[in-house]
Amino acid sequence: MKKLLILSLALVSMGALANTVYLNGSSVEVGSNAATLEKTANTPANVTLNLVVPTSVERCDDADMRTRRTTVTNGPLCGYDSVAYRCNGGYYGSGRVGPRYNPPRRGPRGPRGGRVVYAGRRYNRNNLCYRTVARSCVTERRYCANPQYVTVDKLKSFNLSFSKFSKDASIAFSLDQNQNLELEVLGMNDSCVKKTIYVSDSGEKTGAKLKLKRRCR
Predict the structure, then answer these.
(1) CA angle 103–106–110, rounded 5-degree value
(2) For residues 7 and 150, what is the distance between their CA atoms, to the nearest angstrom?
(3) Cβ(214)–Cβ(163) under 8 Å?
(4) Based on C-alpha coordinates, what's the Rg of the chain?
(5) Taken in order 37, 180, 49, 184, is the CA torsion positive or negative?
(6) CB of 69 within 8 A of CB of 138?
């Protein structure tokens, strides 16, 4: 039993060594989505980590594909309608909903005494403005009746930068397909490091900056 325990600890130790990556260039191959990053005196201020992230994707056989009719509200697919509303009050529709509009610009008096109200390039005599709304229509959507999920390796780049960080350090790093990020400087108080995480418009974590605070330099 004791020998088995020693062997297990040795295997764990070998796995930890295999996941150690030295940041000795501007672009580093991590080889997986988790590693212990070793920052040295030769580490540049900006490093691109090239990761392999295991990702679950949906697969479907052609025989399992189905079609169903559904109602959607979609301008590019169904078209648009132009809806008139009163320009007075600064809001369209009923109640205070929707974007606010500036008061309409008053033009010269019309032939019957009422003032002409300009609405964009057009004008009308009924104090009406117009907004564009998407139509609803029935469309067919394809879906998988029996989806199957497989795990594939996806390549991803993660930009790691350092600011006022001249010390050597070991950093626990991991990033999975759900954007769960681990970025911890080992053996250093968390209050010593300021982290800035960069996120794309789609919610994908693309990089991070580690700044060592003055009192810990």
Answers:
(1) 145
(2) 33
(3) no
(4) 30
(5) negative
(6) yes
CA nearest to 43, candidates 183, 166, 209, 187? 166
The pLDDT tens digits for 48-101 are 999 999 999 999 999 999 999 999 999 998 999 988 877 765 444 443 334 444
Predicted TM-score (pTM) above 0.85 = no
Q: Which two tokens stand for residue 187?
A: 């053996």
Q: How far apart are alpha carbons 107 and 194 in whole angstroms? A: 58
What single-letter DSSP state applies at residue 62? Answer: G
Tokens of 132: 């564009």
Looking at residue 129, what is its pLDDT? 85
Nearest to 161 by CA among 179, 183, 143: 183
Task: Return the H-helix or E-strand segment holding 212.
Answer: strand 205-212
Residue type, 19: N
**Burial letters for 72-106: b for 16+ Cβ neighbours within 10 Å, e otherwise?**
eeeeeebeeeeeebebeeebbeeeeeeeeeeebee
Q: 167: which DSSP letter? A: S
